[in-house]
Amino acid sequence: MTDNKELLIKWAKAAGIRAAKTAAQTAVALLPTTPVFFGEINWGLIASASLIAAITSMLTSIGGIPEVADGESPIIG
Predict the structure, then answer these.
(1) Distance CA 71, CA 76 (A)
(2) Helix 43-61, helix 3-30: angle, nearest 10
(3) Which InterPro entries match (predicted)?
(4) Most exposed: 12, 22, 41, 42, by fewest CB within 10 Å?
(5) How many domains in the chain?
(6) Is the residue at 63 inside a domain?
């Protein structure tokens, strides 16, 4: 593999982990603190907000993340 391809794979893994953590944090933040019944929780809203947060995290990571190449993005250059 070339260095750039290895760097891109490393970036994708790190960005994916960040996106998954962001989605989980968003889901937890949207859960009510004292639900009476789990049926009252709007799971569709939680899922869509978590998905948007994960996508936003991936897009933000294009600018670079500290885990890969001293924060430089392999996509931008």
Answers:
(1) 12
(2) 150
(3) Holin_r1t
(4) 42
(5) 1
(6) yes
Q: What is the pLDDT of residue 77?
A: 63
Establish if 62 belongs to a structural domain: yes
Q: Taking a C-beta distance cutoff of 8 angstroms, is the pair 64, 72 a contact?
A: yes
Enclosing domain of residue 63: 3-71
Q: What is the mean pLDDT of residues 67-74?
A: 78
State the Cα–Cα distance between residues 3 and 6, nearest whole angstrom.
5
Please provide the DSSP assignment of 6-60 as one string: HHHHHHHHHHHHHHHHHHHHHHHHHS-SS-S-GGGS-HHHHHHHHHHHHHHHHHH
User: Is 77 a domain residue?
Assistant: no
